[in-house]
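TICKET: design request
STATUS: open
ATTACHED STRUCTURE:
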């Protein structure tokens, strides 16, 4: 990994203020709260993400390139207008900042529970939030989770041009088992951008904590961030 650090640093934008560390990655994490997600499943998502952020290996990966930062935010999504911030863009450049971010996330309570699945609107929310980034970041990633196909609002594919224009990659963690098959739907219609990938939870939400940890390690690793562009699949 040390051999990759100079390359990654070379890709970072200059910051206007010397005290603000350059941002190597902006990561938006989107949690599914559609009606198909019960309270136990929601808690597994939220607390699984909290525990992942507190994991020493994840924290080490966030801080892998000294003198840089990661910008992170978390929001939840379901129907056409049900997309809400949990924690807005936050600088992660120290263990203390990461722990504080995880603590804020752990205090959140679910807002909605009875709305459909508007994946396109969830991605539109991500685009809006990336347009509000407080600093320029070298790479931009949406980390979206879901357990069903889109059934409300515009198709997720309609967001691909705007995502591409901003250089945003969309990765997914998909809970398998529903019909129509959400895994195929996300693979063919949702993930997009350089290095995009999908992780399948074959055993339902109980797999989520371990898989989100592995997914974050993959997204945060400098060698993955520097990967060559991929197609929509």
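STATUS: resolved
RESOLUTION: sequence designed for all positions
ATTACHED SEQUENCE:
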């Amino acid at each position: 990994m040390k051999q990759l650090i100079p390359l990654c640093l070379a890709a970072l934008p200059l910051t206007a203020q010397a005290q603000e560390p350059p941002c190597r990655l902006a990561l938006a994490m989107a949690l599914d709260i559609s009606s198909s997600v019960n309270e136990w499943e929601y808690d597994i998502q939220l607390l699984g993400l909290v525990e992942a952020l507190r994991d020493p290996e994840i924290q080490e990966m966030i801080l892998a390139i000294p003198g840089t930062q990661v910008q992170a935010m978390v929001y939840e999504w379901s129907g056409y207008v049900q997309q809400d911030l949990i924690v807005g863009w936050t600088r992660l450049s120290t263990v203390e900042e990461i722990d504080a971010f995880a603590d804020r996330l752990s205090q959140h309570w679910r807002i909605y529970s009875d709305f459909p699945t508007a994946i396109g609107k969830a991605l539109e929310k991500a685009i809006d939030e990336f347009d509000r980034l407080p600093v320029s970041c070298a790479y931009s990633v949406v980390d979206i989770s879901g357990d069903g196909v889109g059934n409300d609002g515009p198709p997720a594919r309609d967001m691909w041009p705007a995502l591409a224009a901003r250089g945003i990659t969309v990765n997914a963690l998909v809970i398998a088992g529903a019909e129509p098959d959400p895994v195929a739907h996300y693979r063919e219609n949702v993930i997009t951008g350089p290095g995009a990938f999908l992780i399948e939870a074959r055993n339902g939400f109980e797999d989520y904590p371990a898989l989100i940890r592995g997914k974050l390690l993959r997204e945060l690793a400098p060698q993955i961030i520097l990967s060559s562009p991929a197609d929509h699949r």
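CLOSING REMARK: The longest strand covers residues 23-32. The two ends are 26 Å apart (CA to CA).
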